[in-house]
Specification:
The protein is mostly helical and 150 residues long. 50% of the residues lie in helices and 5% in strands.
Length: 150
C-alpha cells in the first residue's frame, strides 16, 4: 500500500475508520501489512530510473512490514485515538460489500521486504510505520484544517 494523506486514498480510509473508533485489528490481526510512505515511493522510483545496474523486479515497500494489530495501534496513536474496535471476518465481509472491495485485501498476509533496494543502498526517509504514520497524520490534520478554514 502506498500511503499518502490525499483524500479518498487508502490512508484516508484507514484514518477515517480510526477516528470513528473502528480502527482495531482486522480478523486475527496477525496478517502482515506491507506499506510505503508516498514520499519514499516517489524517491525509490526516481532512484531506480537513475540506475542502470538493477534489472528485473524490485519490491518498492518500506523495509519494516508489521502485523495488522500493530499497524492499526500505531495509526491510532498517531491520530490521537485511544481505542479501536476490532472487526471479525463477518463484519469485514459486510464492510467490504459496502466499500466495494474484497475481504482478501484486508485478511491476506503480505510481508514484502525491499531487499534489492536495500542491497543497492537506497535510503528510506520513513523506514518505520511510527514515523510514517506520524507524518501522514500531521499532513492530514493540516489539510483538514485548511479545508475547514476555507
Amino acid at each position: 500500500m502506498t500511503l499518502s494523506p490525499d483524500s479518498g486514498g487508502v490512508f484516508d480510509t484507514l484514518l477515517g475508520l480510526a477516528r470513528r473508533g473502528l480502527g482495531g485489528s482486522a480478523g486475527t490481526g496477525r496478517q502482515f501489512l506491507s506499506w510505503i510512505h508516498y514520499e519514499d515511493f516517489i524517491a525509490a522510483v526516481r532512484w531506480l530510473i537513475d540506475r542502470d545496474d538493477i534489472e528485473g523486479a524490485v519490491n518498492v515497500a518500506a523495509p519494516n512490514p508489521l502485523p495488522n494489530v500493530e499497524f492499526m495501534r500505531v495509526l491510532r496513536e498517531g491520530c490521537g485515538v485511544p481505542f479501536g474496535l476490532p472487526a471479525n471476518r463477518c463484519m469485514l465481509e459486510i464492510g467490504a460489500v459496502l466499500m466495494r472491495t474484497e475481504t482478501e485485501l484486508i485478511l491476506k498476509s503480505r510481508r514484502v521486504v525491499p531487499t534489492r533496494l536495500l542491497e543497492h543502498g537506497f535510503t528510506f526517509t520513513y523506514p518505520d510505520w511510527r514515523s510514517a504514520a506520524g507524518d501522514l497524520c500531521r499532513q492530514s490534520t493540516a489539510d483538514r484544517n485548511k479545508a475547514l478554514a476555507a
